[in-house]
Amino acid sequence: MGLRSGARERFLSACLGAPTDRVPAWAMRQAGRYLPEYRALKEKYGFSALVHEPELAAEATLQPIRRFSELDAAILFNDILSVPEALGQGYAFRDGGGIAMDFTLDSAEKIRALGSPEDVPARLDFAARALRLVRAELGGSRALLGFAGSPWTLAVYMVEGGSARQFAKIKRLAAEEPALFDALMEKLSDAVAASLNLQISAGADAVQIFDSWAALCPAAEYERLSLRWMRRIAAALPVGVPVIVFAKGMAHFAREIADAGAQVLGVDWTRRLSDVRRIAGPRLALQGNLDPAVLCFSDERAVRSRVRGILDEMRGERGFIFNLGHGISPDAKPENLAAALDEIAAA
């Protein structure tokens, strides 16, 4: 049997640790603010419309695919806070930066008053409609990814009331009111599972769970605070659909993350992929992990050099997907992403 060479097949094969003709590649936040065509779309319609209007979300999703022919996957343009919004806790972006939730989950009454996970699919129908539009345009040419925030990461925003510095509220809730914390996490886990199942049914080939605030968890508490809830989600998803977990700062939990149901671990830029491979063993595919700042460089040769370094480090490894170690910066230069993808395709 020959190596899988179509972009969609290449990506999905890598998720399963199968050989591919080259390393597949995509980039977290590839649909978004570093692209001039996205900025023009946002200026005209606003961020909320881009998330909630299926035609606009599909357009934002497809913009990087049209610009960069070497991308192997498209990821839905959406926001992880769509799930809290579907449960009744809306959000907005602060003028000075950061996120502000419509209210803070600062009482048992507010937590219990959140909506039902059973209502989430209907309230997120706009995302399903956008995915169907993207799937229809892509056909089978590229992999299509859905995503959601992890219950822990969502709870951080919901309990803190938005972006925070000390994170004392969520830590206090988890430590001092464990039963109430568990009740919130059960609801969020079921809501995230409902969202991801909706996205899969609408055409997503794989899904990524962003555990972006994983590093807030003490190592001894990671299982209780986050990992167990992602395990619950993975168990509720269809067998055969790859689950990618991006657990920032927690690559040393690679085996535990695999045991929780992930097929792919997204690795941030602070760890060497080869070191994580030794921890993870062969059964977990790895994704990463170029420092996003590299795409802001002025010297394209330096960008290509950093990309080659990662490719050389992972040469001969099955189950590797090239990505960034976090989302693309607004200051990233599109030509640098193009150079990085060209270097990957030529390797």
Largest β sheet strand count, sense and barrel closure: 7 strands, parallel
How many DSSP helices? 16
The rough form would be described as globular
Record field, number of beta strands: 9
Query: Would you identify the regions where 5 or more consecutive residues have pLDDT less than 50?
Result: none
Helix amount: 40-55%
Walk me through this protein's architecture:
This protein is α/β, with parallel strands linked by helices and 347 residues long. The protein is 48% helix and 12% strand. The strands form two sheets. A seven-stranded parallel sheet has the order 1-4-5-6-7-8-9. Helix 11 runs parallel beside helix 12. The radius of gyration is 19 Å and the shape is globular. It starts with 6 loop residues before the first helix and ends with a helix.
Write the layout of secondary structure elements.
Blueprint (H helix, E strand, L loop, with lengths): L6 H9 L20 H10 L1 H6 L1 H14 L5 E3 L6 H5 L4 E3 L5 E3 L6 H5 L7 H4 L1 H14 L4 E7 L1 H10 L7 H9 L1 H24 L4 E6 L10 H14 L7 E5 L6 H6 L4 E3 L6 H8 L4 E6 L9 H14 L6 E5 L9 H13 L1
Helix pairs in contact: 4-8, 9-10, 9-11, 10-11, 11-12, 15-16
